[in-house]
Write a structure and sequence with these properties.
Elements: H1 8-11, E1 15-18, H2 29-36, E2 40-46, H3 48-57, E3 68-72, H4 75-78, H5 84-98, E4 104-109, H6 111-115, H7 120-130, E5 136-141, H8 151-160, E6 178-182, H9 187-200, E7 205-208, E8 223-227, H10 233-241, E9 245-246, H11 254-268, H12 273-290, H13 292-298, E10 302-305, H14 312-321, E11 326-332, H15 337-344, E12 353-357, H16 359-369, E13 373-376, H17 378-386, E14 390-393, H18 396-399, H19 408-426
Parallel strand pairs: 1-12, 2-3, 2-4, 4-5, 6-7, 6-8, 8-9, 10-11, 10-13, 11-12, 13-14
Helix pairs in contact: 8-10, 11-12, 13-19
């Protein structure tokens, strides 16, 4: 089936809900972004609650010196007894003196800093001038006011786009075509993708974000970009303002999704379909074979996806088509039909889609459906487990390398394990 074909799922009305939500804030994006950009530092301007959140979410890094911290807004700051700009300058200057290896400093806004109207964009410009652009200093919002946690990555990358160098074109000619893969990926996934692009004869290939600040890609009219993460709507808009053209493709999750992703890119670059088939068929067959074991546990099971990460629609496509699961409801915090069209077209016609959240109503529908597995945030997982449901934490799906052929079985196993654990507990 063509990834861009129109299907009943793509046209079906969506249940829109606007009520109480249960999500993490965008600050948690720092946990995977700081692992990806290896010489960047993320300085959150927020409260002690923000600091505790990051310490909890990144507790596995307790034995290494992290590349994130919190400039804590104290009561005296809120009371107007301190100059917040001076305080922030002092903290940032001390940080750079202590960590001269930092090449890119992000000032990350939080709910408290936004409520008191602290202008971090102006602060970033002031500090960058003070540091003479070494390091570069950028600002973005990780606030949880009206957003979900993956939007932290979107805000970070969209803040990076205006700073990217322009692509250079020979005099009187168009800029040469180059591919940009957008979305924070694990290094092992990037390496696998690069090998496949090389075998397909596609290049040059850039990744945003790059592993180091001085390796950020150029951008311009010759850039064709493809999303590796589905939640990067603002980044996509920023890239298009710079002249980049999007390649529509499903998210590279599972054997089918990854193959369709690569095939869409190959078609955009004019690659011979026979060559693409020869390159992609062997890893696709290996991935499909590896999926057999987790599929045996997942096939025929019912799954309910709460809106949390914006990964829900491509995950639902993967679980239904490649793992044989039955979709009872697919919730997503925000539905970008333009970016999601290829994955929407592949959803089963009977799946209920929901955009936004009214958590109490959604919980009622989940209890009535009695699914075998619930995919949700941490705030809902423990209460649902106490009610007898098997759950999968959606945030783990962002922390883990799940894209690509080699990770397809690992992705399925993330959903199979809660069912296996539940079966052991019931014995």
């Amino acid at each position: 089936m063509s990834a861009c074909a129109t299907s009943p799922a793509a046209l079906r009305p969506v249940l829109a809900e606007r009520g109480q939500r249960e999500v993490f804030c965008g600050l948690t994006g720092i946990v995977w972004l700081h692992r990806r950009i290896q010489d960047a530092f993320f300085l959150v301007v927020g409260s002690r609650t923000c600091a505790h959140l990051l310490q909890s979410a990144a507790g596995v890094m307790i034995f290494a010196e992290p590349r994130f911290a919190t400039a804590i807004i104290e009561e005296r700051d809120l009371a107007g007894r301190a100059d917040l700009d001076d305080e922030l300058d002092r903290v940032a200057t001390r940080l750079i003196a202590r960590r001269p290896d930092i090449r890119l400093l992000f000032l990350v806004g939080s709910c408290p800093s936004e409520v008191i109207r602290l202008d971090l964009g102006r602060a970033a410009a002031r500090l960058e001038e003070r540091f003479e652009r070494s390091p570069r200093v950028l600002a973005y919002s990780g606030s949880g006011i009206g957003t979900t946690f993956t939007e932290g990555e979107d805000a970070c990358l969209s803040a990076l786009v205006p700073t990217l160098a322009p692509t250079l074109a020979p005099a009187g000619r168009e800029a040469p075509a180059r591919l940009l893969v957008v979305g924070a990926l694990a290094d092992v996934v990037e390496d696998q993708f690069r090998r496949l692009f090389a075998a397909l004869g596609i290049g040059p290939v850039d990744f945003l974000p790059a592993r180091r600040a001085d390796a950020m890609p150029p951008i311009g009219s010759g850039t064709r970009y493809v999303l590796a993460q589905p939640f990067l709507g603002e980044t996509a808009t920023a890239l298009e303002r710079r002249g980049a053209v999007r390649i529509a493709a499903p998210c590279p999750l599972g054997a089918e999704g990854t193959r369709l992703w690569f095939e869409s890119i190959a078609a955009a670059f004019g690659i011979d379909p026979a060559l693409a088939d020869g390159v992609l068929s062997p890893p696709a067959r290996r991935a499909a074979a590896a999926l057999a074991a987790p599929r045996a546990r997942l096939a025929g099971r019912r799954v309910f996806l709460f809106p949390d990460s914006q990964l829900e629609i491509p995950l639902a496509r993967f679980l239904a088509r490649e793992c044989g699961m039955i979709l009872t409801e697919v919730g997503t915090p925000f539905l970008n039909r333009r970016l999601m069209a290829p994955d929407l077209a592949l959803l089963p016609a009977g799946a209920q889609l929901a955009e936004g959240q009214d958590v109490e109503r959604q919980l009622d529908r989940c209890r009535a459906a009695r699914p075998d597995l619930v995919v949700c945030g941490l705030g809902l997982a423990n209460p649902l487990e106490a009610e007898g449901f098997a759950t999968k934490w959606s945030i783990e799906l962002v922390f883990s390398p799940i894209q690509g052929f080699e990770q397809a079985a690992d992705l399925a196993a993330l959903f199979a394990r809660p069912l296996a654990r539940r079966a052991l507990l019931e014995v």
